[in-house]
Design brief:
Strand content: 5-15%
CATH topology of the largest domain: Rossmann fold
Shape: globular
Number of domains: 2
Helix content: 40-55%
Structural class: alpha/beta
Number of strands: 7
Strand order of the largest sheet: 3-2-1-4-5-7-6
CATH architecture of the largest domain: 3-Layer(aba) Sandwich
CATH superfamily of the largest domain: Vaccinia Virus protein VP39
Largest sheet: 7 strands, mixed
Number of helices: 14
């Protein structure tokens, strides 16, 4: 099995994490271990890299690529990071990376059902178990389908696409990615079909819903922050505006200080920032990386450092 993964913004990630040889680092979305291998290669025998992923294919590939390095790979969702560290008797980490979204391997393996470029069973499960895209497309009512297409895919033709799906499945279940892609194409105006591939937003929305990506992201950010040592760093790579908004808002919450009215002579609320910002604006790929790795086009990297608690 070939689990291709070219790590995006790698030099920037390594710089922001400020990897120490004896530190504990967590890659919450290890994928093909592109970032993890570079982090682990900078550790000595006292350091440790822990890679997490809910995709068993990723776990197998990452374990093979990290062999011989001070690293371990565990199948699990990064939103369960606190419980996983507790089970390993590890109190806290020096740095944590979350590289979000779907991996190149998941898109390239047609049978996984993530891509609209090939005809395959509707699946899209990162964990390869449980609720699938087939279940969603063939059981959710029209309003629920419209809602996720509009909110998760930012699809302006969400209503007509949802209606087309419901009409089609009345005759026969929608079973494949090819069938879903054709329904989308027929449901949008002809000009929209000419200007761009009309399937991208629908497939993105269904994938996000099937894997509860935003729910896990919100929970995962909080879990990751709770696992950091004071002075520990959290770096997050996003690939679309909805993910980035969740990260930006959560970071802002940790950065928030005193909330007393400005005319108060002294602070009475007791609120203090929990983190300091390491990236005033999100970092993006430079020209050289954009030329070599098209996946980096939409990548945004944000990072914070956890502050010590003030007693």
């Amino acid at each position: 099995m070939e689990f291709a993964h070219v790590p995006v913004l790698l030099p920037e990630v390594l710089h922001l994490l400020s990897v120490r040889p004896d530190g504990v680092y967590i890659d919450g979305t290890v994928g093909g271990a592109g970032h993890s291998r570079e982090i682990a290669s900078r550790l000595d025998k006292n350091g440790l890299l822990i890679g997490l992923d809910r995709d068993p294919d990723a776990v197998a590939a990452a374990a093979a690529r990290l062999q011989g390095l001070p690293a371990m790979v565990i199948q699990g969702n990064y939103s369960q990071m606190r419980q996983i560290l507790d089970s390993l008797n590890i109190f806290a980490a020096d740095g944590i990376l979350l590289d979000l979204g779907v991996s190149s391997h998941q898109l390239d393996e047609a049978e996984r059902g993530f891509s609209y470029h090939a005809d395959a069973p509707l699946d899209m499960r990162m964990s390869q178990e449980g609720f699938s895209a087939y279940d969603l497309i063939n059981s959710w009512d029209e309003q629920a389908l419209k809602k996720i297409l509009y909110e998760y895919g930012e699809e302006k033709f969400a209503g007509s696409i949802a209606a087309a799906i419901v009409r089609a499945r009345e005759a026969s279940p929608v079973k494949t990615t090819g069938e879903l892609a054709e329904l989308v194409r027929q449901a949008v105006p002809q000009k929209y079909r000419r200007d761009k591939n009309p399937c991208k937003k629908t497939f993105q929305a269904v994938r996000i819903a099937v894997n509860d990506e935003f729910g896990h992201l919100s929970a995962g950010l909080r879990a990751a922050f709770s696992c950091l040592k004071p002075g520990g760093r959290l770096a997050v790579i996003t690939f679309h505006s909805l993910e980035d908004r969740i990260v930006k808002q959560q970071f802002a919450e940790w950065l928030k200080g005193c909330t007393c009215p400005p005319d108060f002579p002294q602070c009475v609320c007791g609120n203090r920032p929990k983190a300091r910002l390491l990236t005033r604006k999100p970092l993006t790929a430079g020209a050289s990386e954009l030329e070599q790795n098209h996946r980096s086009r939409s990548a945004k990297l944000r990072a914070i450092e956890k502050l010590p608690e003030i007693l």
